[in-house]
Give the backbone structure.
Amino acid sequence: MQAKSTFVSRGLEYLCAALLIVIVLIVFANVIGRYFFHAPLRWSDEVAQYMFLWLAYLGALAALMRGQHYSFPNLVEMLPRLPRVAVKTISDLIVLLILFVLVWFGWQLVDRLSFQTSLTLGVPVYYAYIALPLTAALMAVVVCIQTINRLRGVPPGNADAVGTGRLDERP
């Protein structure tokens, strides 16, 4: 299970890197076209915005899978084992509540925008906005798995082989 999680997490990171490269290339091509050839790519801003939206949500999912979202690990790790597990579980339950709210209202947003098409591309805008409820639902699954594993005593498998990813470490 841990190998699958690492594979999926690494795949998400590569997908995010690819999306970022494509966004940069599209915006760069638009700048070149606009200022040097006086022929901007009219679709580039819209595509870059939609891709950035997906990049943000997929990046948040990848960070959650690796356990690198914002938290206070030093403060929580100072607690004894039982209170530490309780605090992390309560934190996970709060995160799950927020994720379920995001899924619920994100799905309502997608439903309301289901008949709207984008201005320059002419594609349904829900292709972009489905990212919110979809990734929030996937994040909820990840949090549930992490919580169950923590309560069963399974050590987290999100640490890199190189280090823990803290800022003060050197490769």
The CA atoms of residues 162 and 171 lie 7 Å apart. Residues 159-163 have pLDDT under 50 and may be disordered.
